[in-house]
Amino acid sequence: MKKIKIGLLGFGNIGTGTYRILEMNHRKIAETTGCELEITRILVNDPSKKREISVPSGKFTKDPDTILNDPEIDIVVEVLGGIEPAASYMLKAMKNGKSVVTANKAAVAANFAELKSVAAANNVLFRFEASVAGGIPVLNALSTALSGNEFEEISGIVNGTTNYILTQMTENGSAYEDVLKDAQAKGFAEADPTADVEGIDAANKLSILMALAFGKYVAPSDIPTTGISKITKADIDAAKERGCKIKLLASAKKNGNDVEYSVKPVELPLSHPLAGVSNEFNAVFVTGNAVGELMFYGRGAGSLPTGSAVMGDIIEIAKAVAAK
Ligand code: HSE
After folding, report:
1. Residue 285: its H or E element
2. At 190, is the pLDDT very low, low, confident or very high (cuts 50, 70, 90)?
3. Do both 163 and 92 map to the same domain?
4. What is the mean pLDDT of residues 222-248?
5. Range of the structural domain that residue 286 is part of
6. How far is CA 122 from CA 82, 93, 188, in A?
């Protein structure tokens, strides 16, 4: 059986989730790809750190070049988070002939055109399903099964942390700071949760969704963005009085030849399908001119759900490498 070697850049929540999935579903993945997949090297800051997962210590490295320059590694998986050095590492991996998978919405949204064009120029694959809405395969759906549509609208709840916070504040009367800590402990929040609570993470994801759905790139910093850090218990109670729930909505709608877009908290009536999306779950509404309305729903954050999307991309690349 052909061997495919994978280098992981980062071993936080998503990296360990991806590692676990490969262990858990090894046989199924080998059957699907016709290949033996192995994570041979993992970039970490501290190889001697105690971890909840057992990994042969020889796999750990502190030097990114031992992955990026290793001729035996076919696929580089970037799960470091943050724009740099993640984007530079991805570009270097591609220039060295490696296909790249990432879950990093900030790096993808900031460098969308360059990452795509360097991948194409070097004849390697670049996949980033896990960067939007965690385990929900919405990017795959937009670019394959739904690609016969002109899209009219893409909107939804695309940040698990803020949805978790708003849900707990609404349903249990929890205090904002307490629930944020809880979301961090559960591995939903970014290392610096400012990106979550100020809507920046959702803007990164909306930028990627718009680029795929409308072929229109808008830098995340150009998306009008309001987060949830100023939402108070009084706002939530007032919304309740009106029969509504507050949700952080990322939205892009066609208006003639233009697209209108924003990230902001909105009051949704309880009857609205997005009002029932709770905790770390995400949902993305898509309206296409042929398919009509669709809604994708699932876990938008967390180690295994996001690892599931990373592994799906690895498998697609492994199939292509095996077919060469
Ligand atoms: N911090 C992100 C969220 C992780 O809460 O949705 C998944 O992208």
Report:
1. strand 281-288
2. confident
3. no
4. 97
5. 140-299
6. 24, 10, 34
Atom of ligand 1 nearest to the CA of 193: 1
Domain identity same for 60 and 157 = no
Q: What span, in angstroms and rounded, lies between the C-alpha atoms of 284 and 132?
A: 10
The position carrying tokens 């490498």 is 321
Q: Do 216 and 103 fall into the same domain?
A: no
**Which residues are CB-neighbours of 237 under 8 A, at least 6 positions away?**
none
**What's the confidence (pLDDT) of residue 191?**
79
Closest atom, ligand 1, to C-alpha of 164: 5
For residue 204, the 8-state DSSP code is H
Residue 164 buriedness (CB in 10 A; 0-12 / 13-18 / 19+)? buried
Burial of 44-78, coded b for 16+ CB within 10 Å and e otherwise, reads beeeeeeeeeebeeebbbeebeebbebeebbbbbb
Clarify whether residues 44 and 110 are in a common domain.
yes
β-bridge mates for residue 245, sequence order: 268
How does pLDDT run across 41-81, given as a tens digit for each residue?
999 999 999 999 999 999 999 999 999 999 999 999 999 99
| Residue 129 CB less than 6 A away from ligand 1 | no
Residue 173 has a CB neighbour count (10 Å cut-off) of 10
Tell me if 324 sits within 8 A of 102, measured CB to CB. no
Mark whether 151 and 270 lie in a shared domain.
yes
159 lines ligand 1 (CB under 6 A): yes
Of 275, 277, 297, 276, the C-alpha closest to 286 is 297
| 200-230 pLDDT, tens digit each | 999 999 999 999 999 999 999 999 999 999 9
Does the Cβ of 74 fall within 6 Å of ligand 1? no
Q: What is the CATH number of the domain that holds 270?
A: 3.30.360.10
Strands ordered across the beta sheet of 126-127: 60-61, 35-43, 2-9, 73-78, 99-102, 126-127
Whether residues 152 and 236 share a domain: the answer is: yes
Token pair for 36: 């033996």
